[in-house]
DNA sequence: CTCTCTCTTGTTTACGTGAACATCACGAGC
DNA sequence: GCTCGTGATGTTCACGTAAACAAGAGAGAG
């Protein structure tokens, strides 16, 4: 298509020519160098500068060189606001989330940012402090004014299913970790499959039943893992012990572990994430319950540290990178096809990583 | 100043009026609703719409209501590209980073995003896959084209100190975790102080010397922690054991731990982060070296999980939230004062959190 | 030699917004 | 009754870019 060099010319770091600096009395008006400035210096029209800037063909070598030289001298950088205005798009994807504290979120966001960058899109973070209806609603509304072509939502969307919230029209959206697949385009880890794998692994080892430490009630991922845990036990005809409730933190897992250590019949626990599993390990260690000899533990996420827990944790591996990739793919498809969000759920498979925290129950020996 | 209501009117979520959707054959030109459209419907001039949209005073009640109604009906949302073009700024801060994988980065970014949002600024993530000179340089250059008023750099800036790289002029910048304080405005955790606290704590417990597991050689934080470790030992007149090199990962800490477990004289280890400390704990556990009875371990970061390691980890607490806060403060000051980046380093203090992984050496008994 | 075709460059215009200025109506003060 | 001020609203224009169209120059064909 464009045989001559890179498609987009980038002016290198500049030397001087920063417009005097203190010359203008009023302040910082007109600090930026525009195409017109470059054109004037190069002795061409601004349209020619535009063509050079965008690597369009049809600019003869000598002219192009002149323009490039002028760009360098003035330190020209294209104004993306003007570009966005002209083209009607921002090449930016917004990401709405609660926080980056959880491993899953930060890794998903990282994958989103990386893949988006590869496609020429930047990522704008829209954090929501406290996950109240109002705050989420506010973020959605604010988003309408934001310089964003599409949005990826990484929050528990069921906070808004009262029906009061409608996404601004014309904004493409993909939702992560939600059961809103009937209304939005959803990308999600196959939570149910993962939980099932965990439970089946423990049952197959010979455990009579499996206890469960849940994530926070507000989390859909946690809900679904708990649901699948229950279902897997029921399918196998095993009793379903009362679940213990955690909040994703290791501390909450520790608290649950102290309680479970006092349950004599408990030989296997499935924690809804690896942090809580870590808390379990600590509690069992302190209470003298050996893992895996006395109690087996399975986590969820497969955070990098899990292989160095004591003992190394058997856990369900989540492919956050893949989730991020599909999110970007999803919004880009919407942007390019111009269509609205097509409802549907895109499930990313999970797999069980067996390490040293699970073993057959001692009573079986 | 503006006594009547909120300064910026936000149109609520709309009902219908999405411009037919399939009506336009050619595609997506003119999907957006502009001020002119609202003005036409409301029977006023677009300037009046602008005034209402920005909450300016001097629009009489009835007119304002008409305009608001028209906005609602059409689903008007202001075009931020046009706004940015008009005002010459984007209300956006760019964050250049390697990845969100490390706890520190993701928590710092979260704090940045939160504080920026509170000031009305959005965050644009500019991830750099592989930290080569070229990639970093590319990101800086690309940034010039990006819709960003200022930049926070969370990478090892010494990758670029060859002098070949100059930040685009007029872009305000704050650098995290760097020794470029002579050239840039730097915000950083007081790495040296933290490392010193860790070493002194172990020496004060009676250990003869302290071994060290470093972070990657490319990391300035790791370098400074190692340097401070060495200095603290020398100041106390103690021998300086050869440092072991890790890469921040728990696995690398585990490898170092296996080596250290074979060192009979090793009774105290300072790991450059908590993940590697976790690896140490695992290695010592597997080799039958009790922590803290046989060997004391100190980490760095105080990640939330550290309190649930086995045993709970003594570590140096870093205040990532404060780092993020000061970064935002720094760039905002630059933006508002219009000045360039004033060189200087802003140190955030650290503190030692003593838990159960440290104790006097057994030989002292 | 002229006509047309192509290749390069210039001119005009629109994108959506909001500051600056213009206009208009109305009421108070002389 | 006239002027002037005040407050509400309209008009013009510029922000920086790039598409669409226009114009000019040179080359090849008749």
Rough shape of chain A?
A: elongated
Question: How confident is the prediction overall: mean pLDDT of chain A?
Answer: 84
What structural category characterises the helix and strand content of chain A? Answer: alpha/beta
Output the number of helix runs of chain A: 11
* Range of helix content of chain A: 25-40%
> In whole angstroms, how far apart are the ends of chain A?
71 Å
| H/E topology pattern of chain A | HHHHEHEHEEEHEHEHEHEEHEE
Describe the structure.
- The structure is a homodimer of 365-residue chains.
- With 365 residues, chain A is of the alpha/beta class.
- Chain A contains eleven helices and twelve strands.
- Chain A has helices at residues 35-42, 46-53, 61-74, 80-87, 103-118, 133-145, 191-204, 220-235, 250-261, 274-286, 320-337, and strands at 92-97, 122-127, 150-154, 172-176, 185-189, 211-214, 244-245, 268-271, 296-301, 314-317, 344-348, 351-353.
- A six-stranded parallel beta sheet of chain A has the order 2-1-3-4-5-11, covered by helices on one side.
- In chain A, helix 5 (103-118) links the parallel strand 1 and strand 2 (122-127).
- The model of chain A is unreliable at 1-30 (pLDDT under 50).
- Strand 2 of chain A pairs antiparallel with strand 2 (122-127) of chain B.
- Chain A binds a DNA duplex (30 and 30 nucleotides) through helix 2 and helix 4.
């Amino acid at each position: 298509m464009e045989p001559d060099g890179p498609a987009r010319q980038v002016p290198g770091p500049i030397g001087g020519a920063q417009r005097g600096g203190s010359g203008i009395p009023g302040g910082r008006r007109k600090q930026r160098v525009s195409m017109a400035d470059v054109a004037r210096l190069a002795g061409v029209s601004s349209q020619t500068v535009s063509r050079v800037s965008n690597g369009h063909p049809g600019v003869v070598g000598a002219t192009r060189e002149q323009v490039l030289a002028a760009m360098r001298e003035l330190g020209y950088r294209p104004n993306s606001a003007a570009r966005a205005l002209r083209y009607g798009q921002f090449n930016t994807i917004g990401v709405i989330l609660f926080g980056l504290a959880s491993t899953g979120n930060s890794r998903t966001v990282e994958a989103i940012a990386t893949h988006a960058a590869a496609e020429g899109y930047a990522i704008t973070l829209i954090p929501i402090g406290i996950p109240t209806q109002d705050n989420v609603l506010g973020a959605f509304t604010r988003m309408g004014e934001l310089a964003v072509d599409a949005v990826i939502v990484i929050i528990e969307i069921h906070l808004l299913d009262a029906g009061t919230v409608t996404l601004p029209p014309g904004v493409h959206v993909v939702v992560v970790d939600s059961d809103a697949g009937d209304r939005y385009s959803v990308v999600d880890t196959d939570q149910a499959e993962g939980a099932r794998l965990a439970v089946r692994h423990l049952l197959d080892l010979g455990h009579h039943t499996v206890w469960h430490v849940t994530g926070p009630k507000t989390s859909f991922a946690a809900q679904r893992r708990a649901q699948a845990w229950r279902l897997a036990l029921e399918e196998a005809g095993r009793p379903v012990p009362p679940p213990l409730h955690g909040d994703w933190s290791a501390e909450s897992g520790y608290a649950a572990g102290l309680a479970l250590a006092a349950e004599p019949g408990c030989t296997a626990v499935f924690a809804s994430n690896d942090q809580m599993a870590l808390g379990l390990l600590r509690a069992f260690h302190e209470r003298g319950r050996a893992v895996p000899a006395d109690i087996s533990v399975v986590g969820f996420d497969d955070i990098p540290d899990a292989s160095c827990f004591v003992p190394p944790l058997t856990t369900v591996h989540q492919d956050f990178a893949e989730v991020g990739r599909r999110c970007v793919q999803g919004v880009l498809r919407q942007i390019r096809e111009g269509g609205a969000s097509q409802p549907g759920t895109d499930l990313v498979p999970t797999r069980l990583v067996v390490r040293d925290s699970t073993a057959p129950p001692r009573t079986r020996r």
